[in-house]
Hints:
Layout: E1 3-6, H1 12-23, E2 27-32, H2 36-48, E3 55-59, H3 65-79, E4 84-87, H4 102-130, E5 133-138, H5 141-145, H6 151-171, E6 176-183, H7 196-205, H8 214-225, E7 236-239
Helix pairs in contact: 1-8, 3-4, 4-6
Amino acid sequence: MKTVILTGASGGIGKETVKIFIQHGYFVVGQYNNDLSGITELKDYLAEKGLSDYFLAVKSDFSVDKDVENLFDVAIKNFGHIDVLVNNAGTGLYKLFTQTTDNEWERQISVNLKSAIKLSRLCLDKMIERKKGKIVNVSSIWGVAGASMEVAYSTVKSALIGFTKALAKEVAPSNVNVNCVCPGVIDTKMNSRLNADELQTVIEETPLGRLGSPREIAELIYFLASEKSDFITGQVITCDGGFIL
């Protein structure tokens, strides 16, 4: 049976992605950190559907290197191999660049970028050996276009895009695909800081006239992890309703 490591499993996009992979017959090792309510909600949903045996939750703080390594070790110990890695973990920061501290920069780098680099390196050893594997990185439209008041977040998400393109070229001869999804403004807890007027402004600036749903991003992630995307690699796909056209 196929196995996927999915980081950020307790968030809106993460929970939907876990459900889709399990529905397609995968075992999912899902990382979370502080969002206990989110991971509990996901576990309860899977229990109701009789799918609990397909999900293993692992608490990992990605600002701690050992926690990243432990996540991988737990996955290998339980399942022996990893078919897909989804680097979905992320933390936002809405703050003026001139007021952003060194510690805040370090956290942005560790959670949004460094964890993806470390997990990719760990998983690739076995993927390259097996001549098969998929890595899907979740960036953001702000990694493409940049966002005022989100310089640190935009910077690391942009770096994740560069990482995707370069790594895709390097591992393509080993039949490993690496792609990147850039969500727009999605109806998740991360965007709860926006008030009603701000949300309405975003909707009006989106050609399709609405926010995206976590399920829509999850479906795109799964497509890039499936056999239907075997000839797609190194691509950065925005899913934003046309927001940054």
